[in-house]
Amino acid sequence: MRKDIHPDYQEVLFHDTNADVFFLTRSTAKTKATREYEGKEYPYYPLDISSASHPFYTGEQRKTSTEGRVASFNKRFGAFGGRSKKAADSAE
């Protein structure tokens, strides 16, 4: 095997910031930050989502809107489209 072509395989501390859960595992992820965990300093990598906070793994349902996508769009942007009410009244 050729030397000096493989990335460093080391223990890395991953932090799921949504669930505030730490995972210590081996990885080739490169980080600039470090954090102490259980009395030892590890490279630190924050995560937005992991198995500790993902709805598929936790079984939690996300709240969905009862109105349709078109109704939601019209509610937000209906005033911007088409003619104004004054212009529509004067055309009659």
TrEMBL record:
Assembly mode: Part of the 50S ribosomal subunit.
Gene3D superfamilies reported for this sequence: Ribosomal protein L31
Membrane-crossing segments per the record: none
Stated name of the protein: Large ribosomal subunit protein bL31B
Keyword Ribonucleoprotein: yes
Family of the protein in this entry: Belongs to the bacterial ribosomal protein bL31 family. Type B subfamily.
Record-linked InterPro entries: Ribosomal_bL28/bL31-like_sf, Ribosomal_bL31, Ribosomal_bL31_B, Ribosomal_bL31_sf
GO cellular component: ribosome
PROSITE patterns, alphabetized: RIBOSOMAL_L31
